[in-house]
Amino acid sequence: EIVLTQSPGTLSLSPGERATLSCRASQSVNNYLAWYQQRPGQAPRLLIYGASSRATGIPDRFSGSGSGTDFTLTISRLEPEDFAVYYCQQYGSSPFTFGPGTKVDIK
Amino acid sequence: EVQLFESGGGLVQPGGSLRLSCAASGIIFSTYAVSWVRQAPGRGLEWVSAISGSGGSTYYADSVKGRFTISRDNSRNTLYLQMNSLRGEDTAVYYCAKGASEWLYVNDHWGQGTLVTVSS
Residue A47 CA to chain centroid, in angstroms? Predict the structure, then answer.
């Protein structure tokens, strides 16, 4: 089973600041890496797939990078609606595991 | 517009069974993989199970293997999760999620979830 580790656990930032979230895999996921956003009381929403491709309708302030085992989600300038929990998921090999999440909250 | 609607959740005693359903609309259902993902209260997302577009390939998390069975009826555009031998740790909101293609298990659309509570 591929284990995903996300850091930090919580990121406290102000609107307008840049957020950098990390996801590390226990072995290579061949770029089959996705990022999801979950706001309180809502279902998750796909942001990034294939490590760096934005999903339909996702603003360009969200970007993904990385390959192999180390991946990054960057939010260039935080908007109020971006304060949420972010999960990475590998979908290259079953079980298609999620990371534990990073909470981005308002400083 | 893609829509996924889960149903079948509720309160069940430990050791009991429950069958969840997920009705899909707005897509050619048979051309997409679909998955079940759950979230225990106050916890993170946990991938549970997935099935290919044709139904010929199924995948399970170790935590549910042998107890849960995923299936689909492409003629009814519906995904199922049969859950047997339920335990307290199975208490969660269960989401169904559509894959990006028949074999690609990245989840590009999600339902709103159905709550399963396992308690005596």
Answer: 8
Contact state of A91 with B104 under an 8 Å Cβ cutoff: yes
pLDDT in tens, A2-21: 999 999 999 999 999 999 99
B74-115 pLDDT per residue, tens: 999 999 999 999 999 999 999 999 999 988 899 999 999 999
Taking the CA of residue A62 as centre, how many other CA atoms within 13 Å lie in the half-sphere pointing to its CB? 23
Task: Report the alpha-carbon distance of residue A88 to residue A97 in Å, rounded.
Answer: 9
Check residue B3 and give its pLDDT. 97
CA distance linking residue B120 with residue B115, whole number of Å = 16
B44 touches chain A (CB under 8 A): yes
The chain-wide mean pLDDT, for chain B, equals 97
| Three-state secondary structure readout of chain B | CCEEEEECCEEECCCCCEEEEEEEECCCHHHCCEEEEEECCCCCEEEEEEECCCCCCEEECCCCCCCEEEEEECCCCEEEEEECCCCHHHCEEEEEEEECCCCCCCEEEECCCEEEEECC
Do residues B36 and B20 lie in contact, with contact meaning Cβ atoms separated by under 8 Å?
A: yes
Residues A49, B106: C-beta atoms closer than 8 Å: yes
